[in-house]
Each structure stands twice: as C-alpha cells, then as structure tokens.
Design brief:
Elements: H1 2-17, H2 24-31, H3 35-48, E1 51-53, E2 60-62, H4 64-67, H5 74-88, E3 96-103, E4 106-113, E5 128-129, H6 133-138, H7 145-150, E6 153-155, E7 160-167, E8 176-183, H8 189-210, E9 231-232, H9 235-242, E10 248-253, E11 259-264, E12 266-268, E13 273-278, H10 283-289, E14 292-298, E15 306-315, H11 322-337, E16 349-364
Antiparallel strand pairs: 1-2, 3-4, 3-8, 4-5, 6-7, 7-8, 9-16, 10-11, 10-14, 12-13, 13-16, 14-15, 15-16
C-alpha cells in the first residue's frame, strides 16, 4: 500500500513539473514499474480527473484536480504521507484511519490504513469526497464553536462514527486531517471519545510537529507564544511517554574504559526497561563485562518530554524461550516499524537485557527555564 501511494505521488510530482506533459515511456523510465501497473494507474487518475490527454494517444499532463496541487509543496505532502503511515500502523484500536487534504471539489483521501476486522470502513485512496463532513468541519480556518473549542469533529453518518482532527504545520491553521472511521455498532460516542481521542490527538500533534509546528493549538494562534517552563513528569506522565515510539540512547563502558553510546528500542513495564541487542552488536559483550548503564529518551518537539535513567543490566536471553523472544521482537517491531513488523524475527536477536534502574527521572518543557526546589542532580 505504501509503495502504491508513493508511486502515485511520484507521478503527481512528475506531471506538475512538466507543463507540456509526458509520454508513458518517459514516465516508465522514472517510476520503474511495469507497463500494466502504470496504465492501470493512469486510467484511474484520468477517470478521477487528476490527469488528462489532449488526444487519444497523446502525452499525459495534469488534469483540473491536479492543477490545484500546484500551490502545495509536494515534498511536504510526501513527508506527511510517510509520517502518516508510520504513525497509523501503530494504532491500538484496529479501526480504519485516513489522511485527508482539501481539494477544489471536496476532500481528497491521500492515505488509508484499513481496519483488520471483518466489518470495517473502507475508502478509496485518491478519491475526492463531499461526504466526509467531520473532515470538512476541522479543515475550515474558522470552524464552528464546538470544533474550535474541542479541537475535533465527531459525526455519525449512517452506521458509522467518523472522528476527525486537524493537522497544522504552523500549529494552528489546518492543512490536513486525520479521520478515524468505525462501524457504529462497536462504539458509543462516549466510549469512542474516551478510548480513542487522546491517542488521535497525540498523533495529530506529532504529525503537525513533523511538518514544522512548534506547538499544537488548532485554531488558537495566540493561545501560546512560548514553551512551558521545565517541570517534573509524574509517574503516570512518565509511563505514558515511555509507551510511545521513542528510541533510547544507551550508554555503557567499553573494556578500554571509554564510553560507548548506541540507540536502542526500549520497553518500560513500570519496574524495568527491556532492550534488545541484535546480531552483530558489540555492546552486548560490554554489558556482560560491566553491567552499569544509563539511558536517555527524549522527544524532539513540544512538550519536550525526556527521561534519564541509570541502573544495572541483566541478560535474559538464556532464560527465555524462542517463542517469548519472538513475541518481544514483534511487539517492538510493531511499535517502532508499524507495517514492517514482520521483517524481524527472534533469530535476529543476540541477547535481551533487562535494566533495573536505581535512578529514574522525567521532565518536560524548556530545559533550564525554572529551578525546581529540592530537585536532585541529573
């Protein structure tokens, strides 16, 4: 699905950059796909009005719908689409999630991760719809009072719930939207908002940050003008942060006494961190010789949460079954890789370590902006 969407976007970029159009042979030379796949794609986009031909076997050029994309930075669209698939593949509710952007004649469905359930919502990527009312509500620069106050729109078309949240590259003006869609019989409005809204809001915020936002305050440009001062993360806040797809940096000591730092995937169970050393990792031997380690985990955008830990590492691989290691690998891979989870197996693992911290602290906000009474040294 991701490669198909990438080919479509690459074709869009080609046609927008060539006002005189391109022949199928010229397009094939760039896309590197099969002739049958290319002509299926061209026919579909022509039917939808995104591309056109002046004559029956003439050159392909951008159609009326694609002309509207000229003002949109295609690199940003590709970045957003890639980020969406990475984020959406990790969702925990097993329902359909869409990435939508405004189009001249409605709402363009740019990306989709379908639910795995037998009864599910299914849309067509590349289709322009006038029926996505929740998306239309959040994409307005001046939305209704409820949407402005809540930061989302929830509608109930026949037999569905649709929950939309804005994606704002500047932090406040929506340029795209996330749409959560599910059969109504599986949810009530209250259960949907309670179970899904916090994660969806965090996802929309992360996508906005990845597009350049320094804060996520939809429709409220004057709400915040600077980062919050530094504050300590409480136990629940720390746990919520560590459950995200954040890579840790593990520091250990080499046999020659020099420090060694390596990025690792991490999992926190409330008592211990679990990390994996893949085949070929030298640092696993370093930990067997000297188990003293430190970990740092941080996010690169507001609210700038970060965690520091120091402790002792214990190898677990010899005491764990292959099935348990494989389950751990799949859990890690799905968390960090999403749709690419099946590419890693237990055979890729050299060792599994459990780290018991004797020091664990978390902060958020602008570093050094406030002095906390009685705060311990980091």
């Amino acid at each position: 699905l991701t490669s198909s969407a990438e080919r479509t976007l690459r074709l869009v970029e080609l046609l927008l950059s060539e006002p005189d159009g391109l022949t199928p042979q010229e397009i094939l030379a760039v896309l590197g796909t099969s002739r049958s796949s290319l002509f299926n794609l061209l026919r579909r986009l022509k039917t939808l009005g995104y591309i056109d031909q002046n004559e029956r076997r003439g050159r392909y050029h951008s159609g009326p719908r694609l002309q509207a994309w000229r003002s949109a930075p295609t690199d940003s669209m590709q970045t957003l689409l890639s980020a969406f698939y990475q984020e959406a593949s990790r969702q925990s509710w097993a329902e359909t999630l869409l990435l939508c952007v405004p189009a001249p004649e409605g709402i363009l469905i740019l990306g989709q991760v379908e639910s795995s359930q037998a009864v599910r919502s299914v849309y067509t990527i590349g289709e322009v719809s006038n029926a996505l009312n929740a998306v239309g509500s959040v994409l307005q620069s001046t939305p209704g009072s409820d949407v402005k106050a809540n930061g989302y729109a929830l509608t109930q078309p026949p037999q569905l719930f649709e929950l939309a949240l804005p994606i704002c590259p500047d932090g406040n003006l929506p340029q795209a939207a996330l749409l959560f869609s599910a059969p109504a019989y599986r949810w009530t409005q209250e259960s949907l908002v309670q179970a899904c809204l916090p994660e969806l809001r965090a996802m929309a915020a992360r996508l906005s940050y990845r597009m350049g936002a320094t804060q996520y305050t939809p429709y409220h440009s004057a709400l915040k003008t600077e980062l919050d001062p530094e504050s300590r993360l409480g136990p629940e806040e720390l746990r919520d942060f560590l459950e995200g797809p954040w890579t840790a940096r593990l520091a250990c000591i080499r046999p020659d006494g020099k420090p060694h730092v390596i990025p690792v995937w991490q999992s926190w169970d409330g008592v211990h961190f679990t990390v994996i050393a893949w085949q070929g990792s030298q640092w696993a031997e370093y930990l067997l010789q000297n188990p003293s380690v430190s970990l740092t985990i941080d996010e690169p955008w507001p609210p700038l949460r970060r965690v520091a830990a120091r402790g002792t590492a214990f190898p677990l691989t010899e005491h764990a079954s292959l099935a348990k290691i494989d389950a751990l690998v799949q859990r890690f891979a799905h968390r960090y890789l999403g749709a690419s989870a099946n590419t890693l197996k237990a055979e890729n693992v050299l060792r599994v370590f459990q780290i018991e911290p004797d020091y664990l602290r978390g902060w958020q906000g602008l570093p050094g902006s406030v002095s906390l009474p009685g705060q311990q040294s980091r």
